[in-house]
Amino acid sequence: MMKKWLFFLSWSLLLDGFSQNFEQSVLFGMNQYQLSTLPADCQRMIEENSWWKDEKLSGKIELLGYADCVGDTSYNRWISAQRCMVVQNILEEWGVPAQDIVCKPKGEQPCAGPLESSLGDAQQRKVLIKLVLQPKVGDIGVLKTGEKLELKGVNFQPGRHFILPESRPQLEALLEKVKANPQIKFEIQGHICCAGKSAEDGQDIDAGDFALSYNRAKQIFDYLVQNGVDPSRMRAKGYGNRIPKIWPEMTEEDRIMNRRVELMIIE
How far is the C-alpha of 260 from the C-alpha of 148, rounded, in Å? Predict the structure, then answer.
């Protein structure tokens, strides 16, 4: 039987407040991988965040299976895969769509220090559950010329134009929508906050110029091109803080609303 469990829960809002990250570790006993269920806290988490039942949310779960450094390397990789698959099976039984789960066995982890016994390192015998929740990308196929789609969940670090890894599910969803509607042409619009309504644009730490909103829009443009979208269908443009959704900016929530990327249908 499994000797003990350890669960921890960590929620954090990412920058613009559109994405939520969740991580949980499940620890296993030596040479153990079988589970009958996950604890009530984990089940409650899934029930309270059942994105597949919410038309406004999308979610992805990444399962990382690990083993400690005691024993044969090939065996440790095998048991890390078993631990991963067992957790995946339980999540699917709870209703989590299989296509929203990715299982990645990582195998044996380096020893934390000298092994003074055959007990190994319990902290390395685990499955790390990583959940990312984001708003769904809207259906651009129903938009008319001049209408806009805000890319909620596509986030950037302040003053930088590189897209955060947590935004990947939203970009993939956007790519799928764009490819499904090849007749649509659109403008990718970058907007920033905190620069004053008359400011042309903000300073980009990465590029060293004052084209932050444009550089962010161009990042999304480049992503779509690199994944097969015809560049003639779209253009990137930065609007700085000249078209704020809320003015004046009085609170952090106001700044979040203004710091955004949108798609506007142009044809």
Answer: 12
| Helices 212-226 & 168-180 angle (0-180, nearest 10) | 60
Instruction: Give the architecture (CATH level 2) of 140-265.
Output: 2-Layer Sandwich (3.30)
Topology (CATH) of 10-135:
60s Ribosomal Protein L30; Chain: A; (3.30.1330)
Fold match flag (10-135 vs 140-265): yes
96/88 Cα distance (integer angstroms) = 9
Lookup result for tokens 């659109």: 186
Mean pLDDT across 194-199: 64
Length of the chain: 267
The beta strands (E) that lie in the chain are given as 10-14, 19-27, 57-67, 101-108, 126-135, 148-150, 186-191, 234-238, 260-265
Classify burial at 234, counting beta carbons within 10 Å of its beta carbon; exposed 0-12, middle 13-18, buried 19 or more: buried
Across 122-158, b (16+ Cβ under 10 Å) vs e yields: eebbbbbbebbbbbbbbebeebeeeebbbbbbbbbee
Residue 207 and residue 160 in contact, taking contact as beta carbons nearer than 8 Å: no
- The string of pLDDT tens digits covering residues 16-31 is 334 577 888 888 988 9
Integer Cα distance of 77 and 66 in angstroms: 8
- Global pTM value: 0.55
Domain extents for the chain?
10-135, 140-265
pLDDT > 80? residue 221: yes
77-89 confidence digits (pLDDT tens): 999 999 999 999 9
